[in-house]
Amino acid sequence: MEKPAMQTLSNSREHGFVSEAVRQVTLVVGASLFVALCAHIAIPLPGTPVPLTVQNFGVLLVGLLLGSRRGFAALTLYLAAVSYTHLDVYKRQQLRRAAASIGANIAEGCGRRSDGEMKRFLQIARGSASELEYHLLLARDLQILDGDESKDLEAKVLEVQRMLASLVQRLQGSVLAKS
Questions:
Q1: DSSP class of residue 73?
Q2: Which of 41, 56, 139, 179 is most deeply buried (CB count within 10 A of its CB)?
Q3: Which domain holds residue 138?
Q4: Which of 23, 105, 97 is nearest to 65 (CA)?
Q5: What does the alpha-carbon distance between residue 40 and residue 116 come to, in Å, rounded to a whole number?
Q6: What are the tens digits of pLDDT across the range 42-91?
Q7: C-alpha distances in angstroms, 121 versus 30, 71, 144?
Q8: How far apart are the first and last CA of the chain?
Q9: DSSP-derived secondary structure for 6-70
Q10: Count of domains in the chain?
Q11: Under 8 Å between Cβ of 125 and 152
């Protein structure tokens, strides 16, 4: 019987990098979702037609907690997923779903019982990152995003994809070492 993935990860030095990488990717994706949630919390201000959102607080908190590099990656993913007002509603929803699916699959994999199951969910997260990359490329091809903006966002998504690929390789190596 296989040990639960998280128990195995926390009990092994060999998995120190893997568990740290899972934590890093989850923090980045989770922080982007946190900012999206903060944007939906509105405080009506008397005498003004536009309510105040908690989004600015969320952005500040993400930057303070994650640091500049990871905070920037989280906010870039958030912007890619929700802030392009000239994208039609369907495209924005597709971007949101793909971005949210990355973190959700990592979290679900961590809750599974074996390294094999965790690896499978990490691979699903990689697929979601590829889907997000596709939607960004499509937005560039349709000239919804300009070239510089598109390249910057694509670079951030590729960084998340590399992190996930590295994590899957480390997990694969540890599973083979146990055999």
A1: H
A2: 139
A3: 5-178
A4: 23
A5: 37
A6: 777 787 666 777 777 777 777 778 777 777 777 777 776 665 554 556 66
A7: 16, 24, 31
A8: 13
A9: HHHHHH-GGGHHHHHHHHHHHHHHHHHHHHHHHHT-EE--TT-SSPEESHHHHHHHHHHHHHHHH
A10: 1
A11: no
Residues whose CB falls within 8 Å of the CB of residue 82, separated by 6 or more in sequence, listed in order: 36, 39, 92, 95, 96
Encoded tokens for 131: 């889907």
| CATH code assigned at 88 | 1.20.1440.60
Residue 83 corresponds to which amino acid? Answer: S
From the number of C-beta atoms within 10 Å of its C-beta (0-12, 13-18, 19+), residue 14 rates as: middle
- For the stretch 93-138, pLDDT in tens is 777 788 888 888 888 888 888 888 888 888 999 998 998 888 888 7
- Tokens (6 digits) for 156: 């951030």
Give the burial class of 37: count Cβ atoms within 10 A of its Cβ; 0-12 exposed, 13-18 middle, 19 or more buried. Answer: exposed
* Whole-prediction pTM: 0.53
